[in-house]
């Protein structure tokens, strides 16, 4: 064991602030996009409902039998 080999070890330098900021921004934008798509879908469904109501194709009043 007289000739020991040197092994390169990766040293942990701590968290990378730039990477953390980029990850946070991308996760925030992704979650915001999903929330906005959900909002747009609900808005579209409400608009379709009121359009059908205005045209008289549907009614919110229960018909008597």
UniProtKB/TrEMBL annotation:
Listed transmembrane segments: 21-37
Keywords associated with the record: Membrane, Mitochondrion, Mitochondrion inner membrane, Transmembrane, Transmembrane helix
Top-rank lineage group of the source organism: Eukaryota
Cell compartments where the protein resides: Mitochondrion inner membrane
Family annotation (InterPro entries): COX5C
Cellular component terms (Gene Ontology): mitochondrial inner membrane
Function field: This protein is one of the nuclear-coded polypeptide chains of cytochrome c oxidase, the terminal oxidase in mitochondrial electron transport.
Family classification: Belongs to the cytochrome c oxidase subunit 5C family.
Name of the protein in question: Cytochrome c oxidase subunit 5C
């Amino acid at each position: 064991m007289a000739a020991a080999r040197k092994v390169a070890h990766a040293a942990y330098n701590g968290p990378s602030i730039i990477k953390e900021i980029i990850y946070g921004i991308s996760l925030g934008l992704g979650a915001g996009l999903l929330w906005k798509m959900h909002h747009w879908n609900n808005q579209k469904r409400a608009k379709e409902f009121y359009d059908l109501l205005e045209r008289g194709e549907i009614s919110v009043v229960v018909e008597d039998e």
